[in-house]
Amino acid sequence: FKVVGIPNGNFQILSNNDELTYSIKFKKEPTEENKVVDSEYGKLSMDIKMLELKDSSDPNLFYIAMETKYPTDVVKGGDTYGLNRFYKKAIDGSLAAVNGELISIGDVYYDSYLGKEYRFYYAGGQILMVYRLFYVDGSLYQHGVITDPKKDKNESMNRFFKSFKLLKTNN
Q1: Model pTM?
Q2: What's the CA gap between 25 and 4, in Å, rounded?
Q3: CB 52 within 8 A of CB 62
Q4: Residue 14: CB partners within 8 Å, gap ≥ 6?
Q5: Is-contact 58 50, C-beta < 8 A?
Q6: Read out DSSP for 69-107?
Q7: Is there a contact between 131 and 95 (Cβ–Cβ < 8 Å)?
Q8: What is the pLDDT of residues 107-116, one digit of tens each?
Q9: Which residues, listed in sequence order, are joined to residue 113 by a DSSP beta bridge?
Q10: Cα(120)–Cα(144) distance, rounded to whole angstroms?
Q11: What is the pLDDT of residues 90-134, one digit of tens each?
Q12: How many helices (H) and strands (E) does the chain have?
């Protein structure tokens, strides 16, 4: 785990695995949690970074970035149908975990990698959760923002999503 200081109080979080695979910028230093969970794909290694903002001028309540490493390549390169099916399972699992109400799912790209952005309400519509998913070289990168529905698409949210960078891929 490595935190790189960035001017103006920002922190860049790099993956804590043997080789750094991604970076994303948080406003402050997030907490980190590592887990190994059982799944239909076998044991999954999860690296989770979270930042909850309390009494802040930031319009968002919470930021999260996760990398989940899969033991095998669950989607073969070029299999768009398989990739979309994989994303659907991930999104359905996320919604079920919090009893969320899906608003939208759309395609997003990081370089040439197809990903998904999905939005859903939580807590009876009081909270908006916006997530992006990218599956690259056996890792699922998820990053998201939790905010008030009236503050959707704010500049802090956009900056966080745009700060995501892959540092190393097998391509």
Answers
A1: 0.86
A2: 9
A3: yes
A4: 1, 2, 3, 4, 20, 22, 23, 167
A5: no
A6: E-SS-SS-TT-HHHHHHHHHHHHHHHHHHHT-EEEEEEE
A7: no
A8: 999 999 999 9
A9: 110
A10: 11
A11: 999 999 999 999 999 999 999 999 999 999 999 999 999 999 999
A12: 2, 11
